[in-house]
Fold:
Amino acid sequence: MSEPLMLVIATRNAGKSAEIKDLLKDFPIEVRDLNDFGPIPEPAEDGKTFEENAYKKASFTAKVLGIPALADDSGLEVEALDGRPGVHSARFAGPNATDEENNAKLLEELKGASNRKARFTCVISIAVPAGFALTYEGTCEGIILEEPRGSGGFGYDPLFFYPPAGKTFAEMTREEKSRVSHRGKALRELRAEFDKVIVWLRQRLEEERRMLGLGDHEH
Structure:
């Protein structure tokens, strides 16, 4: 019988972790997150794209902990701002900016703009300690309102209006948002292929063990 497979979600965010664990609960894999481990260094999120940052987080965590890791990077790309805030979405108004400060800066920059099209993008990376990775991506198109609406969600959700639903992300239930959101789409794509992902992980880990001369023995 093959040993149980473990995957660590590279986050300490309990909400994000619960969402991913719930999605993968029917698969033969043990899912942990960073709260299950002691302090580990933070990777530098200095990539120019969501894909680079997701990969940096996943591969760094996998190397440090010695087990496969999943990380995501996501953000808001606004057409009139040439794709900003993009990878800087969480720190648009400064290094430790609050959601409210980021939203205020976005509204300030869009003052008087007639084109308010935007999209959320989420990239998920699953990496093994040797550095190989798989990538999944989801996007959601919407409009930036002129003032916040709704009290749910986080980040730019109160300003991001999703026309097919006639609501902002902050006015949706978590289930409604998950059905249409960028992260929801990327996670569903991952879940649809997760049987193959497990096979891929086992093959990569087996290759690593052979290269390290560990044979059938796990450390």
Observations:
- The mean pLDDT is 93.
- DSSP finds six helices and seven strands in the chain.
- Strands lie at 5-9, 29-33, 69-78, 117-127, 133-144, 160-162, 167-168.
